[in-house]
Amino acid sequence: MGGRYDDALRKKLSGQKKLTQLWTAALGRDAEPYSYVLTPPYPFSSWNRHFREMMDWASFWRQPGACWTVETQTKRTQGGGRQHDMPVRVRFASAKTVLRYLGMGRMLDWFRPVYDAIAGKYPALSAVCLHYRENLLTEAGLAENMMRLAGYFQGAYKTDCYLREIDIPGVDTKFMENHRELTASIFQALHPELSCGSFRSFCMALRIREKAPEPNIYIRSLDPELTFGGMSGAKVTGEQLAKLAVPARQVFVVENKINGMVFPSVPGSLVLFGAGNGIVPELAAAPWLQRIQRLWYWGDLDREGFAILARFRGKYPQVRSFLMSRELLARYADFLVEDTSAPGAMPDGLTPAEQACWQALDGAGRLEQERIPMREVTEFLRRNAEEEDMRRREG
């Protein structure tokens, strides 16, 4: 009978917000009473049809020896006259009593000394303890590690490092990796002035790196005589690329990986590729590219390709595009596919020829790099070499 007549109240009290309020009050030894309005299973106007259920409901709330007291009133019913002592409100002596009613009394008794130990030493962690109360009761050593983390973050904690470099006596870095949100919550509670609600924002605020950066840029020499560290090719990070000192006269940047791998030989030249759309921010940290006057970019003939070109040119004004012309677009119009990217305004920084190609693309689709025959690359390089030779003779 009990399971039927108080389900609504139990559900109301078991919500996360309400439970947190009750636990906070109980742990704070709040002796204030709690009362809740009771709603009968059926309206009193339907008394005749549900007489037995209504009487059972009233008997449940009036049962002797319960952990609550009940307020009653006389109610007028349809067909049953006046019914005396009908429950209208239930009262609990304290938040602790409410938790015992919900079956959490033993959990409260077990949790209280753990909570008092942590919150007594670090009051700012009160809410964190409440949020992780079940973990604190089931995971051995968690309370001790929480206090060790709190002690570390309250002092001179390390920043601008790898997570693996953080040395907290008694706490290995695997603990922080396996308790990411708990770690962030502890730091946030101790430093509310910083916005570190998630582990990602915690790492950003402290400039903590979880993993070593993955090399994502291929650098490949197009000239057998041009090497770096004795190598003709390597896969590097943006930071490593920035530190390279390569005596190249000309650099080609291509968006597509396979095009970079099969790019033809060119004296005194390199090709950079492999990071896809992310290559521009990676190359932004490579100051040696500033001195490369013959810097080229080849991307897909679509809105995104020209947007990348514009961003690249914003960092390196000398960059020129190749195989991104309106004429090439017309030549391979049969290879166009749908452009599913979001429409946008033409980016600043495009040349008149590039602007014309952008306008021709509008609504026509996109032409991917790998759909353009390699003979077009070879022909461009031949013309480019002739122009360079002519400039040298004239110079």
TrEMBL record:
It comes from the Bacteria. Pfam families: DUF3322 (PF11795), JetD_C (PF09983). Residues 24-186 form the DUF3322 domain. Residues 214-379 form the Wadjet protein JetD C-terminal domain. InterPro entries: DUF3322, JetD_C. This is Wadjet protein JetD C-terminal domain-containing protein. The lineage of its organism: Bacteria, Bacillati, Bacillota, Negativicutes, Selenomonadales.
